[in-house]
Specification:
This protein has 16 helices and 30 strands. The chain is of the alpha+beta class and 727 residues long. Among the domains are: 120 residues, PDZ domain (Pdz3 Domain, Roll), CATH 2.30.42.10; 53 residues, PDZ domain (Pdz3 Domain, Roll), CATH 2.30.42; 65 residues, SH3 Domains (SH3 type barrels), CATH 2.30.30; 188 residues, 3-Layer(aba) Sandwich (Rossmann fold), CATH 3.40.50.300. Helix 14 crosses helix 15. It starts with 11 loop residues before the first helix and ends in a 9-residue tail after the last strand. The N terminus and C terminus are likely disordered. This is (African queen) hypothetical protein.
């Protein structure tokens, strides 16, 4: 209402102007009050909710005049829980203070009154809530260019430089150890003390690492952390809509903003949500409110759920499997999460897509796609299979919100398996890790950043611990790289006619192995072979469960074998060479069959093998997993010294042996289990160390193949035996 002063008259135009001024004043005070409220740490929100069967309004409340906050005494009615998938999700947050319900004030009322008002509010409720204002984001770093001058070289610029030792990365082992105890260590924390040693600006990274490595069983750290550590949830290159599907994109406020980018191949799109892992710092699910602070919690002894049985909503068992059939129209229109460990889940469905029309929804677990079972399928494999389908798609799905939430929150890993590499990757693509043949990785994401091409992994280091996080080529790229590497090696080895002729003759060695002279055996030792392994072999860490064969390589290999058989005949035995003829006078063929090795293992002894390094790969493929120990000599003098006193028939050129060993280490180093360096210091102890290494290695776990192969004498191992050279 507008009040006129005595004697004041207004025409229509003047009255309109006064109304405009009045509206402006109201708007000013409204904005001012909001600003003042925000500055005081609170914001006011108006929320409209519809009651949904089975959910009610999807909230629980606590507090009240008779049940105030246990610490601060605040009597406000507060939201104590918001159900996932309920009507209040993404609208209300835990610890929102309810000011009014459908215009009925709830400030300073008893708990029972708040319950009554909510229950009697009908099918729709309009809430006015107060919410803590989010903390202002940290100021973005600013790049400043400046210049300092000095009058001469003896004068400084007036600044002193220093460096800090900080936590660059945390492995899962450290996180799992710290989290239960409530201790927090974050990437970026600055270390000020390691055990009892202060970390100063003058300390180098090498010195700090040396301090850490010198610790025996316990490492004590003192760290400093910025007071404001704001973790910003970003989507990186992710797109927040389905714009690549249609000319007019559909955007989704809140719930779709954190979904991953579409994966595109051959003009088709299948949308996949980036995976989660327990240590992930970013959550790819719709943004959740930050955890309430300790002073925000209300007593939970009295809560309200708007429907009977709502307390069991969280632990509701999965529904019955159902069939979803639709015709593929360009794209599948899905986002997927999960993987081989958890199962594959639908995390997003494009509205108006055929799948959505048939009732497919987020939290559906995909059990079967057409005739393909999805158990144990990685997320990448699921994506590629769905993209490969044409026309009709039949899905068997099961709505499993609890399992889905565990995957989405990072409690359950999606993809999780280990691989052993069988090729060298020494010149990686930018951003990827290099590796050598025989390295082991823990794969935790087969669709890194929502696109096909790279796997996110942890490198497995000594003691089988995760030591480095990064990315490596996916399976398809790895197979291409491994094939190209083999072809390049084969071409290089076929560079001269002599070697080319040798490799051609080598194809029939099992029929005429007697023709291999000493010079040819040297080439066999150092040559490559076609590996039967895939580029990445799926492996698990396990006990071998059998007595492993032993292979000794290097300059003293023949001496070591003879001594092991002579001095430890109760633990070692040499397999017999195969004779292809029934005539007892026939000479051995130089071929060792797996059945001969197996018979020794069954007697509880190590089969001591004299075979070429490329035969080690065949033994590993047959899953015999030999213990390979390389006797390394740094110079020819130590070889000559250790071989002195041997029979004349065992005399060999020290120089030639050294060259062969160096070449062997360079080409076949990845098959070595252990290396013993021969030197003046261990002339009398190297043999005892060899026995100890074999015994200790036998008791240790090793990475073995996930799948079993048939090994019934189908693989032949060619023995390196100088007696074969005699006519």
């Amino acid at each position: 209402m507008t009040t006129l002063l005595p004697g004041m008259k207004l025409d229509n135009h003047g009255f309109e102007k006064l109304q405009n001024v009045s509206s402006s004043i109201h708007r000013f005070f409204h904005v001012y009050s909001q600003t003042a409220e925000r500055n005081s740490g609170w914001e006011t929100h108006r929320v409209r909710l519809n009651r949904v069967p089975g959910y009610g309004f999807g909230i629980a409340v606590s507090g009240g005049r008779d049940n105030p906050h246990f610490a601060s005494g605040d009597p406000s009615i507060a939201v104590s829980d918001v159900l996932r998938g309920g009507p209040a999700e993404d609208k209300l947050q835990v610890n929102d203070r309810i000011v009014s319900v459908n215009g009925v004030p709830l400030e300073n009322v008893e708990y029972a009154r708040a319950v009554q008002v909510l229950r009697e509010s009908g099918a729709t409720v309009s809430l006015v809530v107060r919410r803590r204002a989010p903390a202002p984001p940290p100021t973005a770093p600013t790049t400043i260019k400046l210049a300092l001058t000095r009058n001469g070289k003896k004068e400084d610029f007036g600044i002193v430089l220093g460096c800090k030792i900080y936590v660059k990365e945390l492995t899962m082992r450290a996180r799992d150890q710290l989290n239960p105890s409530g201790q927090g260590l974050c990437e970026g924390d600055v270390i000020t003390r390691i055990n009892n040693t202060a970390v100063t600006d003058a300390m180098t990274l090498k010195e700090a690492k040396k301090l850490v490595d010198s610790c025996k069983d316990r490492l004590n750290l003192v760290i400093t952390r910025e007071l404001i550590r704001e973790e910003t949830v970003t989507n990186g290159n992710y797109q927040n809509n389905y714009s690549s599907l249609e000319a007019a994109p559909h955007t989704y406020p809140n719930s779709s903003e954190a979904m991953s980018s579409p994966y595109s191949i051959s003009g088709q799109n299948l949308y996949v949500a980036a995976p989660v892992r327990g240590d992930r710092r970013h959550d790819d699910q719709p943004p959740r409110p930050p955890p309430p602070r300790n002073d925000d919690y209300y007593s939970s002894r009295r809560q309200l759920y708007e429907e009977d049985g709502m307390t069991n909503q969280r632990n509701k068992p999965p529904s019955e499997p159902r069939l979803i059939s639709f015709q593929k129209e360009g794209s599948v229109g899905l986002r997927l999460c999960g993987g081989n460990r958890s199962g594959v889940f639908v995390s997003g469905v494009q509205p108006t897509s055929p799948a959505a029309m048939q009732g497919l929804q987020p939290a559906d677990k995909i059990l079967k796609v057409n005739d393909m079972e999805m158990k144990g399928v990685t997320r990448e494999e699921a994506v590629l299979f769905l993209l490969s389908l044409q026309d009709q798609i039949d899905l068997i799905v099961q709505h499993s919100p609890d399992e889905y939430n565990a995957v989405a929150s990072g409690q359950t890993p999606g993809d999780s398996f280990h691989v052993k590499t069988h090729f060298h990757y020494t010149e990686p693509t930018e951003g990827e890790m290099s590796f050598r043949c025989g390295d082991v990785f823990h794969v935790m994401d087969t669709l890194h950043n929502g696109t096909v091409g790279a796997w996110q992994v942890y490198r497995i280091g000594r003691n089988n611990q995760e030591v480095q996080k990064g990315t490596i080529p996916n399976k398809a790229r790895a197979e291409e790289l491994a094939t190209a590497q083999f072809n390049a090696t084969k071409k290089e080895m076929s560079g001269n006619d002599a070697k080319t002729n040798f490799f051609r003759r080598r194809r029939s060695t099992h029929r005429r192995s007697k023709s291999l002279g000493k010079e040819h055996w040297d080439e066999v030792v150092l040559s490559d072979s076609i590996s039967k392994f895939p580029a990445y072999e799926r492996v698990v860490l396990a006990q071998p469960g059998f007595v492993r064969p032993v292979i000794v390589l290097g300059a003293l290999a023949d001496v070591a074998r003879e001594r092991l058989l002579a001095e430890h005949g109760d633990k070692f035995a040499s397999p017999k060479m195969d004779s292809t003829l029934e005539d007892s006078k026939s000479k051995p063929s130089g071929i060792i069959r797996l059945s001969s090795i197996r018979s020794i293992m069954e007697r509880g002894k190590h089969a001591l093998l004299d075979i070429t390094p490329n035969a080690v790969d065949r033994l590993n493929y047959a899953q015999f997993y030999p213990i390979v120990i390389f006797l390394k000599a740094d110079n020819k003098h130590i070889i000559k010294q250790l071989r002195s006193g041997l029979p004349k028939s065992a005399h060999k050129s020290s120089k030639k042996l050294l060259e062969q060993c160096q070449h062997m280490e360079r080409v076949w180093g990845h098959v070595f289990t252990h290396t013993i360096t021969l030197s003046d210091a261990n002339i009398n102890t190297w043999f005892s160390k060899l026995g100890e290494l074999v015994q200790r290695t036998q008791t240790q776990q090793l990475w073995v193949s996930e799948t079993k192969v048939g090994t019934h004498g189908t693989i032949k191992l060619y023995q390196k035996n100088d007696k074969l050279n005699k006519k």
